[in-house]
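User: I'm putting together a small comparison set for a docking exercise, and I want a reference complex before I start. The sequence is below, and the ligand is NAP. Could you produce the 3D structure with the ligand included, as structure tokens?
Assistant: Of course. I'll restate your input first, then give the structure tokens for the complex.
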Amino acid sequence: MFKDKTVIVTGAASGIGQAIAVEFASLGANIALCYHSRTPETTLALCEEKGAKTLAVQGDVSDFNFAKEFTKKVKDEFGTIDVLVNNAGITNDMLLVMMKEEEFDNVITTNLKGTFNMVKHVASFMVKKRTGAIINIASVVGITGNAGQANYAASKAGVIGLTKSAAKELAARGITCNAVAPGFIETSMTEILTDDQKAEIFKNVPIKRGGQPEEVAKAVSFLASQSYITGQVLNVDGGMVM
Ligand code: NAP
């Protein structure tokens, strides 16, 4: 389905980003990824095992110029960009009244501005080709809010607003833009929680377990393969929010 297509995945050294890169590689795509501090050797090896050509660039998606340069490198290397997956994200949890200004700013800058930076530069290229798919990784807490995550929930609500606005602007140019909103997924982002905390969360998950990164990756490749779905938020959350 994605043979000879180029897929960009941000923050693909670990967790959900790694699973998304491997999913698209297994569907025939070439993979361009960016990584931050963790190195992407495992992701690259898994993608190359599937036959993908790969490009990995180290950098920070919240840096406007990095996003521009990364996009240019992908164009120069592969000649095309067909799918963009904005996956890079961080948490920095704290109760609102105790949250420091920089704790708010860092999360908004990485999660929301980072998504804007990549959408802006990649969409500028896609509009010339009049085709493309953009999938932004949001979160169910961007829909519901969450105590202790005012910064993160605001950033992901922002990602959803950005997704819908981009979908409206880009639809006439043949580009779709959707969001995937995971619930509790078992990655390094959630492994800091104790078993008791996890058990408490699973009480509100009808499927009664955490999700796997691969289950999110399947939803992303589904959306990337659709031509008449845009501006939507697809929850991958075991039924947590419905
Ligand atoms: P993860 O393993 O920590 O993955 C996040 C990735 O983003 C890491 O590889 C990280 O690299 C990278 N990253 C962070 N800041 C970056 C920056 N400024 N520039 C480039 N890359 C950056 O956690 P995950 O669970 O897979 O999270 C992936 C996405 O899913 C995030 O957007 C997260 O908000 C979202 N999500 C996760 C869950 C969940 O339950 N796990 C639920 C809802 C949504 P470094 O570690 O090297 O900095």
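The radius of gyration is 17 Å. The beta strands are 6-10, 30-35, 54-58, 83-86, 132-137, 175-182, 233-236.
User: Thanks, that's exactly what I needed.
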